[in-house]
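sorry to bug you again but im stuck and you know this stuff better than me. theres a chain ive been looking at and ive put its sequence and its fold in token form underneath. id like you to explain what the token line says about the fold, in plain words if possible. anything you notice is useful, everything is just below.
___
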Amino acid sequence: MSELLDAGTYALSFSVPVAVLGAVFLHWSRDRSLTAAITVAVLTPLLATLAGVTAVSGFMFTSQLTTTVVICVLVGLVTVPAAVLFGRAIARRSVWEREARARERAAEAARRELVAWISHDLRTPLAGMRAMTEALTDGVVTEPAEVRGYLLGIGRETERVSGMVEDLFQLSRITAGALNLELTALPLRDLVSEEVAAQAAVAQRAGVTLREAPSDWPVVHGSARELGRVLRNLLSNAIRHTGRGGVVAVTAGEVDGQAWLAVDDACGGIPDGELPRVFDVAYRGSAARTPEPGQAAGAGLGLAIARGLVEAHHGRISASNHGPGCRFEILLPLAR
């Protein structure tokens, strides 16, 4: 019994410090590598056992001690690589879960922000429509010219609300991955000519020159309807934010096996700190890109929708300051 107590005392006196050192290192590495922490957790019991057995043997290298050391080494050769592999797997899983939670929180924040923006934007036209409707219903407005003006105002506000609802529907389809694109070989010259012609009257009223810059017009693999919407949005924004006498130009070409399409305006530029946010939902920007008095502001969904539609074509869209204004550039795959 006394021999057993002596052996236990020696074993504990040497194994406990090793275990304590392992616990200290484990605590020190808790905010560092998960793989290192798991490796330490595996090695600590082995080293503590080896220290205890060595102390009990009186540091005499007997055959029993040699056998124990060999067994501990063999076990370590198996468990340490396994600990490294398990640690890396757990670390990847933890990083993925952390990133997934961050994405979920960001998406939830974006949804709340979108609901707040849309609620605010819908309130203004609806209030105007209600006021004009009540004026017509109560007979406050009776002159034919005034009645016509009120009806035209109701029509404009109705179109504005319809546009917001359409943008929301399109954005929901993009985020849900429910877009069904009919991809064909699409000449950019035809697409640009059609959209420029459609926006010519708007540009003329705004005193803006809208033109197609001479370029080599490539043929892309895309959907005419969806890419037309993207270009229409970019042209509308460019015209709205360009002052009278300014120029909005559309040009295109090929680079590194891809087609590019650019819309240049004369908006005065976007602050560098805001450039990464221009495609965010509900982004409106600084005063430099705020609509002029009398112009209707959108819901801030147009560029977010444009990015979603371009990415659905396996392309990219970017914004940069260029010359007297901004350049919105789209990269698209070429038609085979």
